[in-house]
# Entry
Amino acid sequence: MVSDDAPPGYRPGSLRKMFQGVSDEYDLLNRLLTFGLDRRWRTKATTSCLEDSPEAILDLCCGTGDLLFTIQRRGHDRSTVLGLDFTEAMIGRASMAAGRSKPLVLADAGHLPFRGESFDCVAIAFSFRNLLYKNPAIGTYLAEVLRILRPGGHFVIVETSQPESEVLRGIYHAYLRTIVPFVGGAASGSKSAYAYLSKSATNFPAPEEVATVLRGAGFSDVSFEPLLLGMVGIHKATK
# Structure
């Protein structure tokens, strides 16, 4: 799936190793670097996921399961919710939090082990940039999302974004380039992981560019809701 000359930040093997190495500190650093606001953003994304009372939801690239468990709590068991990630350590932490209920799958987002039209909603929280950043095969991932969505199903993405204001964007990028690698690297022991986070967030496309990518992959009714003055936002698209 990946050529030998693929961009260094993109190779699934290197990404898997990177996330494997920061899994213990991942949740703590998410709270710290977002001042605790990431929980609020996931809750907003959950509301968007549950709007049409979906029967089946997939949390794609679920990490330690924050979005998965938020959807489960707010859905009051009305929806079947599964989580999928390609990192054993992340899935392991999610499994511990899930207890007896382990709706978790270890697999790559480019080869989803589900039948076509299995889900009413696919959601992804702060991992879409890992699929999009320097990824010449983004179409493969989006085609898989489309394949497993039922007609009329939704793809909900909560992700970092680019503020319209040049001044605010400059301040935001300065934070990403300085504070994020310093704090993340010091706390996790992996400067490279948080340098990657900084680069992928700084270079993440503007909302209209993301919309173009989604429409080009076959999605319709693409929308964007800015959060935190546009530094974060929720993209929603329909099959």
Residues 12-159+207-238 form a domain with the Rossmann fold fold (CATH 3.40.50.150). Confidence is low (pLDDT under 50) at residues 1-10. Residues 94 and 100 are 11 Å apart (CA to CA).
